[in-house]
Specification:
The protein is α+β, with helices and mostly antiparallel strands. Helices cover about 55% and strands about 15% of the residues.
Length: about 200
Amino acid sequence: MEITAALVKQLREATGAPVLDCKKALEANGGDLEKAKAWLAEKGLASAAKKAGRAAEEGRVEVYIHPGNRVGVMVEVNCETDFVAKTDAFQSFAHEVALHIAFANPKYLDVTDLPADVVSAEKDKLRERALADGKPEKIADKIVEGQIEKFLQEVCLLRQPFIKDEKVTIGDLLKQTVATIGENVVIRRFARFELGAGAGE
């Protein structure tokens, strides 16, 4: 199959990958667009970690309003270039993250954003519960370590299993997106609003 400029352009728009890489991917996969996307993702995964330190100041603020207008989410997702910010792959990722936040209700972006006193209070609560259940102190401490990890998964966005595929976390999904589009991508911040939440506080 002939690798046309239009086909290369289509792959570039879908993935944000450089033109030469798009051409190579299409050549390596006989012009099959889906296989070429997978090839680029596989090739990019190795370099995803290298991209993590690069400045990401472009992007978009994605807004998701759940049907019924009772839950709304705003999330800022950044990338390196305006070109990538306009690709389907990037916009789709931003949308999926907003949708996930609406359903999973994370409290923090990652563990580093968790105040130390929140973690400490949760550990104390878990330890008291284990001791109240009659567990010896050493066993109670081990139980706390296991359960605190579960707590972090519940409250930290990047550690939460993705609602559409629980085999991957949002952090994994982020790495896959970096690999697919070939640029650093950062979930900068988010806000989730729920009708009536906090009204009685």
